[in-house]
Description:
The chain is of the alpha+beta class. The protein has four domains: 35-117, no CATH class; 140-360, Beta-galactosidase, Chain A, domain 5 (Distorted Sandwich); 369-479 and 633-856, Glycosyltransferase, CATH 1.50.10.10; 482-611, no CATH class. Helix content is 38%, strand content 22%. The longest helix has 30 residues, at 653-682. Mean pLDDT is 90; it is low at 1-22.
Amino acid sequence: MLYGQVLKPTMTLSLLLTLSCALQASTPEKQPLSIPILLEERAGVERTQEPVSGGIPIPKGQLREATPMLLAIDGEKIQVATWPLARWNDASISWLGVEFLSPKVPANGKLTGNLVPADSPTLIGPSISQPKDGSSLFIQNAKLHLAIAKEDAELFTVRGETLKGAIGIGFKAQTWSGPKPVSWAMGETSFERDTGGSVTLRREDSLVDNFGRPTIRFINRATVFQSSPLVHLQSTVEVLRGTHFAPTWEILFPKQQKPIEPWIARQIDENIAEINGDSKQLRLPGTFSDNSISVSVNDFWQMFPEAFFHDGNRLHAQLVSAKKDDHVVLEPGFARTKSLWLNTDTNSSLSENQLEALANSPLRPTTTPKWYCDSKAFGPLKPAKQNSNLLHTFRRSIEAVFSRAEKRGHYFGFQDWGDFLARDHTLSYYGHLDQEYDPNVALQLAFARTGDLYYLENSVRLASHYADVDTSHTGGVFQHRSTQRHLENWVADQLAIGIRKSMGKTGKMDGTVPTTLKLIQKQSTSLEKDVRRIIDLAKENGATNQELVEIAIQSTAHNLLLNIASKGAKNGNFDEIGPLDYANAVAKSSQGKQYGFKNVKAAFAPFFELYGGSWNDFPSFHQDNSHDPAIRHTGGHTLVESVVYAWLLTGDLRLRESLLRVARHHVETLVPQEIQNLQDRLKKKGNPPTRTVAWPLLNMCRLQEAVRNMPGQGALSQSLYQSCEQAASALLKVPVSRIESSIHAGVTLEALSVWHIQAKKQNAATYLVDLARYWASNHFDKRNRAFRYKSKAQSSSDTGFNGLLVYGLAYAQHLSSHPDLDLTLRSAWSSLAKIQKRAKAFAMTYRSVHRAAYFLE
């Protein structure tokens, strides 16, 4: 059969596939290790003696163990602490953490140097200790002493040159629904990391409800560096239970000896600040200094409402300072991390401007594009060509995407900073869907190919948001249906009132779970089975009997809502209508009226009171608050890959923490769930959505690269690899002709390409070639030089599909070349250099081009 004809999906290639291992990181002839290092200043402030920390990739086999090194730069030789961030599959180091105190870097200047092993290491980092009585953990260097505090709501005690006392934490909020936080509970404390140049203390505390269950969790890290008066505080809040509004979350600094006049400086929105009650157009810098303390908070005006508040005795950094009208609502799954830099010696030469630059634009150790690409730590990649038209349109596209943040204020704020936000008219695509396809990973690969810090700085900010808000601490991954879920839940709450009354009229409702399930079973045996599954999950999570009954009724209400939607919506699909049309359609249905949902305006008045907005400006949401975790966390989207790379590039422990949770959720819950769903869909008519397994496969391959040989994570690493095998096996069982669309084909090709590089499985290579040739033959619109969504001629074509497909096609062509596939591939590649102004279109078009360029440029 000639290529160009429709290939049967069951066809076995007669040619012998040439499986190249060139993309697998090879072990070069070992040379004395010398790594080029660059330090670039972008804040316009001269920097010196500033802690510099990050990750540098190492070619496979070059470095077995981390040892102190020397940085020869600008005529100085600086002691550098090192530690392994990740390892290759032969246990050699793939990413090396490096840390040192910077030389003098001129404002807007760039220094270049070389990192080499130290002949006689003399680095002396902070000392750590824990008294035999276990009373406290503490760190000490020549400049300061920092210890874990033991009092409620006190985090650390500090003794510096000018700053002495306790660093505390405060949190208060009004609870709209669910468990209320009533008391503090101290959790684990530990030395989390000792690099040889710094030590990080970690402590975890919670606000618990009347049953002792955590409702709000606080994770605080404090890092002390060699011979430095600086302390880096990283504070994270995570919402576990309940819906809370108008929160105040603050870090309190040591009391001053002499009281002063109280004052407050509060950032109200991205343009307006309030100082002692007077409003003015101003973006506050987020830095405060006096004779005893100097502190800077990152992204201060961007994450409004924030404030610095002095009560006369003590400075408060309010990391969220919300009032009711701000409509800041914290729900389960939401988290936020803030970074604070504290100078404990205001007599030092460190300026306020330098401290602010340290918080918002820290110096980062980077290397050259050649080193990044040759290391193979990013997979197939090579330095960008100068004057590349594709790279030019890439840069103009991402600048256009970022410009929307300045033009549209809802990109800023405590919940939204770090977002790409869209407001399409249909309910399913209303909210934070522009994160879809992970636009951030395209920035990271662009940085690796160009060395341009513009890409790195923006990518780190986005990854931090992803780690907190989109890949939540519950283990879930990004969902763009969160706005739809909030609307559905609110309507279901109204229907649940009617269902509860209906159950009460039976005379048998006694408020227990067994009785509630029996009443549900009378309606539907299958519904009772599904409700039982949901309440069993809630029981494992510590739900009380009363909560379980409410969950059962809520689940019944959701089932009723699905029935209404399937009967009342056009083509049985409510996704294509807006929020108000949805609510009105339910209210007009016979079942909606039967269970008391009639007056949409009255029913949603409390909704807008809580969340803000209106029907004309409907609020958008991050957290999917579905009653059913199986619906809440699916494999249809991903933002994991760029968080992995951000962790490796920065060594940020919060990113690592988020990734480990997501990894466990994948192997324990998500992958088994999605494989089963895919297998069920294969047994039915229609085309299965393979991306729901392909995205998790891609995620796990990247997670496995980060976790592999990580101390204490051996079992997780093994589970990730086994889950990768299972996910890949499930995908290989899908006939290539039954894959749903070019989106699913593109994600499947990319995931299997990454898996093949990692595992070198023959069956994956065979399938990749089959799928690539089939798709190129049947889905490419030659006239428009773009792939169609479906194979039918009337199906629309778009260059965004080219972007999703081009890397997988190029990799398949690399495995086994064919002239017709090459022609299609080159045609698709030539059409990609177009400016994309929306993040979703940008990500579709450009997420794979950097790797595809390895084969095509």
